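Review form for a predicted model. The reviewer records the input and the model, then writes brief findings.
Reviewer: anonymous (R2)
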Amino acid sequence: MPIINKFSADTTAANVDPASVLFKARATNIRPLVNMLRSIFFRNRVSCAINSGGIVFTVEEASSTVAQAYVRTDLFATFLYNVQLAHEQNRGRTDSQNEEGEETVHVVLPLDVLLDCLMLFYGPASTAAGVTTGALTGSSGDLRGATTAHIAFNGLGTDFELMLEERGIISVCRMATFEPEPTTDLDFASSPVTQQLIIRSEWLRDAFNELDPTSETVGISMSPSRPYFRISTTGDTGSTEMTYSKDEHLDSFFCSEEHENWYKLAQIQRCKHALSLSDKTKIRVNQRGFVSFQFMIPTDADVSFVNFLFAPQSVPDEL
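Model under review:
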């Protein structure tokens, strides 16, 4: 549980000399951050990768589902990352750089506690994987965007700190951190992408609402000819199939090989919240049948991304 102090936060890492702090940032609107974290909240532990480009939050399940929320620096009013200090702390670690070669610090946090801290002024956020739908909508009379969050972290072995300010009230939350563990690598990039499309998310939401909840699996199929894109389930009440025309429903479409892959419906449903926030969705399938959903979520700064990667029900040994 976090330690919460409702008094001056002069001794927190958020208020000390930036040269002595590994990472500190300030967000004047917590709504995008909370929404993105809620969209991947299906497990309580989240891995955080912090570098000069922002923060990547990763949640995984059963070595077959990986969800990532990309929180870029433009979602913060200020974002300071001490590359030199990160390099010193990472000395001897094998996970110290990301794919682009940027010095990266990894830490594991309790996601439910992180959300509860961010939503401290508005009640618990972790119950049923989130607060009520209207809590962050920014509707008339709603002050959810009025909270300013200061975030600071000084490396493994130290607390992850949040200082929240709203209408003259200051609260400090300190969360214990966990050593990062090896994450699931579904190795999507090792196999060529054979199918790819971009679809307006409203079309995909309609499809998700029609999926038979009694079905254990969902089929995703793409073809160079009609029907170009198909989603199907078979359950106790029969079969459901939704097809989409390349010209009428898809913003872009590529398919070099026709095939259908099946995935666990319960896992695919994990991305419904991210889908509800997004304007468009990019779907990619590689030759081994792994499927990637990239949700393009509009924010005040720019478009942000939440990715879900799913393993198929069976993977061929040889291609």
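Findings: The first strand starts at residue 3 and ends at 5.
Further findings: The chain has seven helices and 19 strands.
Recommendation: see findings above.
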